[in-house]
Amino acid sequence: MSDRLTLATASGLPLLSLVFHVAMGVAALVAGYIAIAARKGGTWHRRSGTVFVYAMIAMALTAIGIALYKGSGDIGAGGLTVYLIFTAWTTVKPLPAGRRQVDVALMLVAFLFAATGYAKGFAALDRPGNHIDGVPAGMIFFMNTIVLLAAIGDARMIFAGGIQGTRRLERHLWRMCFGLFIASGSFVAQLAMMKGMPVWMRSVPVMVLLGSAPLVVLLYWMWRVRLRQNLRGLMTSRDLRISAPSALH
């Protein structure tokens, strides 16, 4: 089996999986940027956001399947994407039943991801070039610090008995934006290896713009919602509440 599965080398089910993965990635990027540009809470935002959530989760699950097929076992990025997008979505659209149990389970999974990720980062420091599978140790530590902060946020929400107001919006916005950052980063990485693409599309400015744009948007919304608490123009729905902390065992 080839170490690298590509559209050029794959056939049968692996090829279909790759095509589906790429298609969902493109759909997620388009829908994600529409959601960013649209009025928050408006019709376009809700519809494009729904497409973004489904496309991102489908893309991530396919990535996990491809990684398992290749025998690499590197499912961290796919698992992180599913976790971030799902928890961002359920922040504004709570599950109808068993919400608390799901919140606790996802929190524990996030802490587990962070712990194993840090272990992988330290292992990368002991390798030549300080990387594993081409991923530098610094990036591994960065990504798993995000996971750790997200898990801590889950714990605070659960023990507090709910999340309301601007904190609810913060949780939704930053997780969605960071999920889009993962998708755009993956797209840029693939774009850099596509020699058949126009040179301008593979230029450093274009790739930096595509890769960093979601982080810039994330910082803007955190500044506006958290620091300035400016909700002007945002169409917000009711506060999210979960069951009392005493239910946690």
Q: Top keywords for this entry?
A:
249 residues; mainly alpha; two-stranded antiparallel ribbon; 3% strand; globular; disordered C terminus
Q: How do the strands and helices of this protein lay out in sequence?
A:
Layout lengths: L11 H26 L5 H28 L5 H17 L6 H27 L5 E2 L2 E2 H24 L1 E2 L1 H29 L10 H24 L12 E2 L8
Antiparallel strand pairs: 1-2, 3-4
Helix pairs in contact: 1-2, 1-6, 2-3, 3-4, 3-6, 4-5, 6-7
* Uncertain residue ranges: 237-249
How are helices and strands ordered from N to C? HHHHEEHEHHE
Global structural class: mainly alpha
Instruction: Assess the beta-strand content as a share of residues.
Output: under 5%
Question: How does this structure look, described?
Answer:
The structure is a single chain. By secondary structure, the protein is mainly alpha-helical. It has one domain. 70% of the residues lie in helices and 3% in strands. A hairpin with a 2-residue loop joins strand 1 and strand 2. Helix 3 runs antiparallel to helix 6. The longest helix is centred in the C-terminal third of the chain and has 29 residues. It starts with 11 loop residues before the first helix and ends in an 8-residue tail after the last strand.
Brief overview:
The chain is mostly helical and 249 residues long. The protein is built from 7 helices and 4 strands; from the N terminus they run H-H-H-H-E-E-H-E-H-H-E.
